[in-house]
Give the backbone structure.
Amino acid sequence: MLLSLEILKEVLEYLQDDLISLISCLLVNKQWSQVAVEIIWKDPWRFQYRCGNKNAKLEILSMLISFLPKESRDILKERDIIIPQVDSPPMYDYVGLCQFLEFSNVHEMVKIISTSFKCDSTNSLNSSNSRSSTLICDSEAYTIYLIKQEIYKLFINGCPKLKYLSFHDVDAPLPFFEGAENCFLNLYELHCDTKLLPGTLYRMAQICQNLERLIVEECCYDNDGLATLIEVQKKLRYLKIITKGNDDPGNSRYNRYLRIAGAISTHAQTLINFSIGGNFIKAIPPVTIATFENLQILKITFQGKHEDILKYATFPQLRVLECDRVTSPLDILIGFIGRTGGFIEKISFDVNAVSELSLIPLYNQTIARCCPKIHYLTTWFNYDDVTEFKQVLLACSELQHLTVGSYENEDEHYDANLDEFILTLEEIEKELSSESLNLSRFEFRFIWQARFTLLENYLQKRKEKCQKPLSLYFSSSFISSLREDNDIFSKLEQFKNEGLIKDLEIG
């Protein structure tokens, strides 16, 4: 029975990350081959390191280069760049199938063309078939610029379904290229930065108004063009800004991104995913972030304190809070979690040294009271405060991933004990009686005392109950504290080989 084209596409989409299976589909028939090729080439870059072919990226880029039209080849020929015609045309329009255009891949193509197809100008001039005149300008930079221009023209004129664009090239005003209106009209995701000229971004704002994801990877200063691009979006749901700047009061240009912040605030009702980081925490005022009342995902990656962002904000719909490479007073984090609406599924942060160890029990109590749906949690363990820790596991029945550290700060530390941790788990499971914990992964951070006997017994019991094996992660500090135990690695590997644990990672 033949499948309709729509059903076939839907079926093969499930294989979009399985290159081997997609390649096998090429051999079924013409219809299957067409659909498989479309899926592979909409984003061929995702396979460049996964297909077992060290030359995969070069082959992808070379194939795309072969599509350069005669007009482009003639322009480059005048710069001693000779790109030979292929013997037979490809079976498919691979350029037209591409939906992802990555800045770095364009530069790789430029490098290939400038090195692999550059002819010897001395021999060229001495041959009877050489060009009739010498170069008007012998600038290598100009040659590189022309190569880059022709590559961008190839994609802009040939990709009517472009969904993803990484655009950081100041020298290439892409939205002014012929065909840009059609190419960029339905962009889904754009990566850019504030180094692009405002005029270039104004033009992009005219063309591209249906972005759902916008990533500003180097937000160095206020840029009215970027602000305008943000303002005109009709479907924006995800915004990521990586800030760069400083706090020099004498340089007002870098003090605040007020124009950009104002543009962001126009999407306060519709943004559901916001990520901010970098090294300039004051770039976007916390009061702006606090207006995102329907926010579901908040990720903060500032290199420093970020308490102002969490101190007064209330996000009743929040489901995910991720704080990487940051520190925040624990009382502010506790207050923030307490103001959420009970929908949080993930709280993740680096288990940095906590200055207020006495607040950890209150943190665990807050999680138990306010986060009944949590799946992924970062916390700490000490047997002296085991009551509050147990409250978390008893109240949060959907918890699957637990990152747990020992108590530690600059002045003092208290080693956690793995045996006490395992005993606590067993006590909780007894209290749950017929039910069992849904935990599937543990991550242990900082320094712990461990003998692994109780852990082995606990894992054996899980196996006997036909429970899924756990995944375990041990930080380097955890392992270094056990160096006197020469058998530690062999024990862990033995657990894995016996099927007691699913995955083992040591950081």
Remarks:
- The radius of gyration is 28 Å.
- Confidence is low (pLDDT under 50) at residues 122-134.
- The CA atoms of residues 352 and 446 lie 9 Å apart.
- The longest helix spans residues 140-158.
